Amino acid sequence: MTEDFLHFIWKYRLYSTELFTDSGEPLEVVSPGVYNRDSGPDFTNVRLKIGHTQWAGNVEVHLKSSDWNAHGHQEDAAYANVILHVVYENNLPVNDRNGNLMETLTLKGKFSEKIYQKYFYYLNNKNWIPCEKDIHYLLPEKINMWLERLLVMRMERKAGELSALLGNNRNNFEETFYQVLAGNFGFKVNQQPFVMLAKMLPLQILGKHKDNLLQIEALLFGVAGLLSKDFADDYPLRLRKEFEFLQNKYGLVTMQGHLWKFMRLRPSNFPTIRISQFAALIHKSNRLFSKVIEAENVKVLTSFFDVNASAYWDDHFTFDKSSPGSRKNIGNDAVQNILLNTVVQMLFLYSISKGEEQHREKALTLLTEIDAESNAITKGWSNLGIKPENAFGSQALIELKNNYCQLKKCLDCSIGLNLLKMNSTT
């Protein structure tokens, strides 16, 4: 038995309809109150009728009544307005701060054992998700309603994470978008080096050279620490010459080149290719985030990222080493990834920061126009008959798996709660 489970029983009134306190007084729960996850009593603003008296106050829940004294509540002013002590086992009479005997309700035997057996099963099975053998009992409408809530919660959490970056950039959305976009270009393997590069090379400096692609590439490759070798090809030699001048002009510090990962990557995702593509995007764009805000649909947004690495990379993946020729465009999958993990997230942050609801709706609508992700998590859900139709669905399912199912937070999950309630009849 856990206190979290007792909270669940109390919150959703899954106990016997006819209740008596342990002192024998009839008990009517007018309102179970508001669940409090912070310090203080577990439920606030509770309304009860004990005997013939109406009570308003708080409720504290424990596994054993002796926990009241063990936790020092009898001396804590925060618990002065507790009107009922709800326990699984009453093993010791306890008093409030004034020395009066606490009214106590023992829940043991007052709810269906089946509901706890099911909860115990969810906590301890090793299935892909705890409720995978039961989830099909729920109507798709209930699952979809929860997924919609999860998606918004996920977006709000990510916006909160990005707000710190925005603050560090003095609320400059263009600079913040540039840094988040850079991280996206690195995918997971080179995300941190790309973010470091963007922070060490402000957008303002790149903006001064936006009409000169070679200089933009020189700045990016140079600060990235990838121009420090002796080269044979003319292209990297020109880049290094340009960078030496610009580094001196702006007092730029370079990264360590070994920070960039090439191993276990497809050559098309090598950081050399991605940096050149990123340079092409900077060269092509002016105030890119402003254009994102104004874009009317996903087709327009996609066109912003239709760029290629420079011509040298048509037959190279690394400096001084030729390879079979091919145009190095970003690719549809990478663009979809940018839309999902940069554009949508920044639009949501912009909406919250500016208090403009239309950008929030635009971000959510955009998710419905982006293809669903294909990964181990979405495939796992598809095996259970829950297949996302678009990125809105796949993002919600990723949130559900990672932050609820994986952590066995069934009592915080609408799906888990509904399935458990099905077992609540005694």
Strand content: 5-15%
Can you count the beta strands? Answer: 9
Span of the ends, CA to CA: 18 Å
Continuous helix count: 17
- Structural class, by secondary structure, is alpha+beta
Give the overall average pLDDT.
Answer: 94
Which spans of ≥5 residues are poorly predicted at pLDDT below 50?
none
Largest sheet: 7 strands, mixed
Give the radius of gyration. Answer: 29 Å
Which shape, going by the Cα principal axes? elongated
Q: What proportion of the residues is helical, as a percent range?
A: 40-55%
Question: Could you state the order of secondary-structure elements as H and E?
Answer: HEEEEEHEEHHHHHHHHHHEEHHHHH
State the main characteristics.
426 residues, alpha+beta, seven-stranded mixed sheet, two-stranded antiparallel sheet, 17 helices, 48% helix, 11% strand, elongated
Protein model, in words:
This protein starts with a helix and ends in a 5-residue tail after the last helix. The protein has 426 residues and is an alpha+beta fold. α4 packs across α13 (332-354), α4 crosses α16 (391-405) and α5 (173-185) runs antiparallel to α6 (191-200). β4 and β5 form a beta hairpin. The strands form 2 sheets. Strands 1, 2, 3, 4, 5, 6 and 7 form a 7-stranded mixed β-sheet that branches. Strands 8-9 form a two-stranded antiparallel sheet. The protein has helices at 3-11, 67-70, 113-124, 140-168, 173-185, 191-200, 203-207, 213-223, 234-250, 271-284, 288-294, 298-304, 332-354, 357-369, 376-383, 391-405, 414-421; strands at residues 19-20, 26-31, 34-35, 43-50, 53-64, 82-89, 104-106, 316-318, 321-322.
